[in-house]
């Protein structure tokens, strides 16, 4: 009951904003793509919290443009960036309430609605970048992404956000023992606080926007993120040692309301999925370029990149945590088994 009330309130608060911006709830115009025309299109609202300069926003803009082109203007996707319609959590609630049609979130954020998505927040479930792409691009993973209609959403595609590693003001993290006694900022996710506890550090959950100040004032000793945070977040001004342990690869995902998805004709669903795939492929190259540029800029800021990290020691230290998640969440166990099966097919 409390959840339903929260969703109703979210709809009541956000709907006027969407209407004022030119939309009408999750979609305007016709409610079914089979009835849509260029003169009377199906208009979908996509909300997210990233800036217009972020590579994921640019990829989603290209996705929207391609959908419009390939449907001859019958399906229009209006994008609201910069958290205009609320936070990531609020956008998910709005999607469930029918206020918006689509959003972009960090994959573990969907665990509230489907426990299997806890998997994407776990450490070392992917061996490396090639393994990550092989698994995420597989037909089996696509089937999983589209299997959550009963949970109120389907995942249209994913976008890489790279590999996350630890970085501190002046101490290299080569083995888990190096984290002992250090206060490390993590995302406000159970998997992240559990991971750092398993590694022997002290987790401090806080929003990304507070990290720079917390590093500067000594509230935390370090944090963990991909290389671009050193430059876009200016963390490299404070932290001078980036230890490449690559403990997690947490993708962003673009999701659509299941109700909206079921109002899209099968042939239009195929177009949307193809356009989403094209956006993901474009983003891979854009992301690699962004990381290369961030490393060069960070080195100019005086950041040292430490590569002689004992990744196997980190894997061993968090193996028990993976077992615990398998036991606690049947959905996680199923998805981890699916990932193992994908690897076997690849071999």
Give a structural overview:
- The protein contains 12 helices and 12 strands.
- With 347 residues, it is α/β, with parallel strands linked by helices.
- The strands form 3 sheets. Strands 1, 2, 3, 4, 5 and 11 form a 6-stranded mixed sheet that branches.
- The longest helix is centred in the last third of the chain and has 35 residues, at 266-300.
Summary, kept brief:
The protein is α/β, with parallel strands linked by helices.
Characteristics:
347 residues, alpha/beta, six-stranded mixed β-sheet, four-stranded mixed β-sheet, 12 helices, 12 strands, 45% helix
Secondary-structure map with pairings?
Layout: H1 2-20, E1 27-29, E2 42-47, H2 55-70, E3 75-80, H3 88-97, E4 102-106, H4 129-136, H5 139-145, E5 153-159, E6 164-168, E7 183-186, H6 190-199, E8 202-205, H7 211-217, E9 222-225, H8 229-232, E10 241-248, E11 252-257, H9 258-261, H10 266-300, E12 304-306, H11 311-328, H12 330-346
Parallel strand pairs: 2-3, 2-4, 7-8, 10-12
Antiparallel strand pairs: 1-2, 4-11, 5-11, 6-9, 6-10
Helix pairs in contact: 1-3, 2-10, 6-11, 11-12
């Amino acid at each position: 009951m409390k959840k339903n009330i929260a969703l109703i309130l979210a709809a009541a608060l956000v709907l006027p904003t969407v209407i004022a911006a030119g939309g009408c709830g999750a979609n305007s115009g016709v409610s079914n793509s089979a009835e849509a025309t260029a003169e009377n299109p199906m208009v979908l609202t996509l909300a997210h919290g990233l800036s217009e300069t972020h590579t994921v926003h640019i990829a989603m803009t290209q996705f929207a443009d391609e959908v419009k082109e390939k449907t001859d203007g019958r399906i229009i996707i209006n994008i609201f960036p910069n958290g205009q319609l609320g936070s990531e959590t609020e956008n998910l609630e709005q999607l469930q309430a029918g206020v918006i049609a689509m959003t972009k979130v960090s994959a573990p954020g969907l665990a509230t609605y489907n426990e299997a998505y806890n998997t994407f927040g776990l450490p070392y479930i992917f061996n490396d970048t090639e393994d990550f792409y092989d698994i995420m691009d597989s037909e089996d993973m696509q089937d999983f992404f589209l299997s959550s209609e009963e949970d109120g959403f389907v995942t249209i595609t994913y976008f890489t956000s790279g590999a996350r590693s630890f970085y501190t003001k002046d101490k290299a993290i080569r083995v888990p023992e190096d984290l002992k006694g250090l206060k490390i900022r993590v995302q406000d996710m159970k998997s992240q606080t559990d991971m750092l506890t398993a590694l022997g550090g002290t987790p401090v959950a806080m929003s990304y926007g507070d990290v720079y100040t917390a590093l500067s004032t000594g509230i935390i000793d370090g944090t963990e993120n991909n290389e671009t945070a050193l430059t876009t977040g200016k963390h490299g001004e404070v932290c001078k040692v980036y230890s490449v342990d690559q403990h997690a690869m947490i993708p962003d995902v673009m999701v659509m309301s299941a109700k909206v998805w079921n109002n899209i004709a099968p042939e239009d669903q195929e177009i949307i999925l193809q356009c989403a795939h094209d956006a993901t492929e474009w983003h891979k190259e854009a992301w690699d370029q962004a990381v290369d540029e961030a490393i060069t800029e960070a080195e100019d800021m005086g950041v040292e990149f430490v590569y002689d990290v004992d990744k196997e020691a980190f894997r061993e230290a968090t193996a028990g945590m993976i077992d615990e998640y398998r036991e606690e969440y049947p959905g996680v166990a199923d998805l981890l088994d699916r990932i193992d099966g994908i690897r076997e097919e690849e071999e």
